[in-house]
Amino acid sequence: MGNDNQKDKGKPEDPMSAWMKTAGTFWEGMFQTWTQAMDGMTAPNAPKGDKTSQAKTSFDTAMKAFRNFSKVASGPDSMESLFKGAGAMPQILAKMAQTGLGGFLQFQQKWLERAGQLGKSTEAYKFEDLDENAFRAWAGIYETEFKRFFNIPQLGLTRFYQEKMNQAVDKFNIFQTTQAEFQRLLYLPITRSFGVLQEKLGEMTKDGDLPEDPKTYYQMWVKILEGHYMTLFQSPEYTHTLGQTMDAMSEFSHAKNEVIQDILGMFPIPTEKEIDELYKEIYLLKKRINALEKLGVKP
Amino acid sequence: MSQPKIPVDLILSKLAEDAERVHARTHKAADILLEPLDTEIATTPYDVVYEEDRVKLKHYIPTTKSRLKTPLLVVYALINRETMLDLQPGKSVVQTFLNEGIDLYMIDWGYPTRKDKFLTIDDHVNGYMDNVVNYICKKHGIPKINLMGICMGGTFSVIYSALHPQKIKNLITTVTPTNFDTDKGLLHIWMKDIDADKITDTYGNIPADVMNFGFLLLNPARLMLDKYIGFFENMDNKAFIENFIRMEKWIFDSPDVPGETFRQFIKDCYQKNLLIQSKMEVGGNRVDLKKITIPVLNYYGKYDHLVPPEACERLTGAVGSKDTEDVCLDTGHIGIYVSSKCQKEFAPRVSKWLKKRDTVSRKPRKKKATTGKTAARKIAAKPRSSSRSTKKKT
User: Fold this and answer.
1) Model pTM score
2) Which residue among A38, A95, B17, B117 has its CA within the 20 to 30 Å range from the CA of B215?
């Protein structure tokens, strides 16, 4: 007996089998105590559909299933199979980790490649002339490289919300870029008009023709400035940038509204979209009523 | 040869004088700005005689006995407000019309809200305008009224007259764009590249602040800088300040524009230029300008940077009327209504033109474009076909 015990102890399945038996005994004891307590609480004439008796039935079923499972699982064959698997565990885990890490490294490499292209994109522009090309360079880099990150497909339950949020950030960045370009254009006439004024004053100094009244200098400058603005405003570059800025502003506003709609949807108030639908219905109804009234049909 | 001299001493002494003047001016300005100022606009009394949704019809209380049998309806643009015609006593087109004995009605388009974003040009012209005209006709027991349109309101009036010619006796258009295919005005250039669909779909109604910013950008040197320097230079002048504030009140009192109306106006007018070609459709009907056979008086400003003469002057050649007249005034977009010089010229002349056509109809005639009083004497009858090709402003 003593030898048998020692022999049994050496088998790895024994502790597992013992644990399952102990667990089974513990839960059965608990179940019995709980059943007695429940019986005391349940009214004698409680209907069949009573919630307490329903819980008791389902717990009873679960216990029976556990008993059956532990009986089979604690058998020598099952235990052997289980521990064979356990021996292979480190190998499986290593393989899983290897695959995951490999995927991650590949993904990271792609990102780095993309980041490496940031420098390449700027080659097309000349940064020497910073005020002219800086905005365009940034816009180009953003469009070709950064923007892609906001278009990575989102996953899971909240994917649509994340997508909208990404779009809002993306459109905001584009709007900021076009707005900066637009502001640069608007500022150009100011810098250039000062340059022209200086040249003019230089000529006037040579001729000894400088005005005495400081107001005259201001009036000269405003006139030059006005002329520069008129030239700028009629240029295709300005018209194009204005159009782009308006588009970017509209797109950002639209994307922002989409996010706000989602947030509003969580509150017990109507969204803009719902109100608009209602307004449209009212508008169409009024049109129909007006048309009928004109035909002489009385409501 | 002597070295040119820079009059530094004189410049500095002028600066010192200016500094003293600025000090004195600021001191006086503080008193003026802190005391009550008369900056009310649109003070001429009127009754609201008809209301529909946001739209009101104002009927001005006559100051003298009516000298015209036919009342006049004034239709303002959807951009800014009709109060511009009554900015201040003494500089009020409304008062001049009343003093001339005109029975005057004016549409107040009100302030569109989000629920108005679906309203189209059709709703404004065949809906509100038609209901207003019907109301006036019914009230006076007459089949036709006189119609005067301003800017975009003029465009609406042209469309209305073409679609309902039986209800209009005489048409007056002022600074009214009808030909949009021109690169003379900045708006005409800019609107070509605007994505009207995107803007309308995003904003619903077009925000007034966005439009106002656009108008300021038409001449930032003058409108955003020089104008306010002028204010500081004159802020010790009470009358100047009061007038300045009145104008500021009007200029920034801008309703939003209903989205669908904006969409059609930009696409059909600014981008496709359909109206002047009689190809525009409103409410399912083609706007055929040849159906306008009533007398047409067409006013515009030589220095109008919003609606340049090129955008206005083709109308009289495109309509079917034989009695037409172009008048080009030496002023800008709103100078026609608010400048002291044009005050004496514009409204009295409109009144005179209407009075001539208020009685028995005269022999139809076609007139050459004229500028102001002197050119009025140059009016000569011309055959219709030749007047179009030879029309010139003097």
Assistant:
1) 0.73
2) B117
Task: State the alpha helices, DSSP H only, in chain B.
Answer: 8-34, 93-99, 121-122, 130-140, 152-163, 186-190, 196-203, 208-216, 220, 227-233, 238-251, 259-264, 309-312, 315-318, 335-338, 340-356, 372-376, 384-390
How close does chain B come to A96, measured CA to CA in Å?
Answer: 49
Chain A contact set for B129 (CB, 8 A)? none
Query: Angle at CA B231, nearest 5°, toward B230 and B236?
Result: 115
Instruction: Indicate the residue of A208, A226, A250 with minimum beta-carbon distance to B198.
Output: A250
Q: Is the CB of B189 less than 8 angstroms away from the CB of A251?
A: no
Shortest CA distance from A275: residue in chain B: B115
Instruction: Report the Cα–Cα distance between both ends of chain B, in Å, rounded.
Output: 49
Least CB-CB distance to A246: which of B7, B199, B219? B199
Within 8 A of B222 by CB-CB distance, chain A residues are 222, 226
Structure-block tokens of residue B345: 């010229």
Residue B221 with chain A: CB contacts under 8 Å: 189, 222, 225-226, 229
Q: Which residues of B are catalytic?
A: 151
List all residues of chain A from 132 to 191 with a beta carbon under 8 Å from chain B.
Answer: 186, 189
Of B297, B296, B277, give the one whose Cα is nearest residue B288: B277
